[in-house]
Amino acid sequence: QVIRCRAAVAWAAGKPLSLEEVEVAPPKPGEVRIKVVATGICRTDDHILEGSFPDVDFPVIPGHEGAGIVESVGVGVTSVKPGDKVIPVSLPHCGECSFCLNPESNYCLKSHLSEPQNLLPDKTSRFTCKGKQIHHFLWVSTFSEYTVIPEYAVAKIDAAAPLDKVCLLGCGFSTGYGAAINAAKVKPGSTCAVFGLGGVGLSVVIGCKVAGASRIIAIDINKDKFAKAKELGATDCLSPRDFKKPIQEVVTEMTGHGVDYSFEAIGLADTMIAALASCNMNTGVCVMVGLADSGSLISIDPMLLLSGRTWKGTLLGGWNMRDCIPKLVSSYLEKKFNSDLLITHTLPIAKVNEGFELLRAGKR
Ligand code: NAD
Ligand code: ZN
Ligand code: ZN
């Protein structure tokens, strides 16, 4: 039962995606084949196309922010069955390794941070195109109409969930929202600064608002992002280009001693340092969310940390995705947050490169 379907394949770094007919092999034991119904485009997918995401072998099918329906399951799969709605998770949870056994950890030693996920756990691929093996990305590869992933990287969600909306919970929304809720633990009445207002940064704004922040300063060089940021809860919007002095000084002056929580959702060394310096020097917490190019380094004045600040990073907002994504979907259905406001365009898979052009132009 090989399925032939369309997929967007990245044949080499630096090239646009090409829409191809691919063959998707049936799931092996412990694997699930999913019909992908909708997928978002996250900046991280662009990092792959640029060749700046570590440990990615080409050709590869990117995409990691999707939602779909289980088509078939391999031997031994018990947690999902054909017809179930699911979100593939880019941070798996095997339930057995030392990270999985630690309740404070949100991912598994089988994730891409410990070992490449260009092939499924048995070191083979389920994708072929024109006789060539195509690599998986983070095991999820949602830019294919069908994909095969290990059962422990699948989260079953409510059958009532609209897949074209909740796909955002597979990465961008959950990352930004969780950065505020889990990583920073934003308190009611606090002040926040969010650097970068893409899908991730805007989701941080939503998280800060839901957590009860009284002031949310949203920062981006693209002022077209400000209207949406305000709609989602930002109280002040700043472009660093409007000031002669560094933006961290502007934020510090605006708030007296810096914000309680700052977030970097861009992925540049300079803005990471600016975000760190924008939170108050003693109890401030800065959460790094943006993904810097592999190999980049940061140098900072150690006093920034010595005076008491906390600087931390987060992957996927700290959620243990397999357990938490279904709960986030329930919160979405209960209208606890409105992630639909993050959707700017809906395109067919054939226009995936146009989607990337929109992302690069900041129109997302
Ligand atoms: P995006 O490209 O949509 O948004 C980035 C925003 O930053 C844009 O609005 C852009 O105008 C703005 N920006 C760029 N340079 C700037 C500067 N110098 N000063 C101020 N603003 C600037 O990206 P996204 O999809 O929202 O993702 C944001 C980052 O988060 C990316 O680096 C992505 O790889 C990363 N990411 C990390 C995780 C994680 O688990 N930690 C998950 C998803 C995405
Ligand atoms: Zn992502
Ligand atoms: Zn594990």
UniProtKB/TrEMBL annotation:
This is Alcohol dehydrogenase I. One of its GO terms (biological process) is retinoic acid metabolic process. Its cofactor is Zn(2+). Signal peptide: none annotated. The keyword Methyltransferase does not apply. Keywords: Acetylation, Metal-binding, NAD, Oxidoreductase, Zinc. Residues 14-364 form the Enoyl reductase (ER) domain.
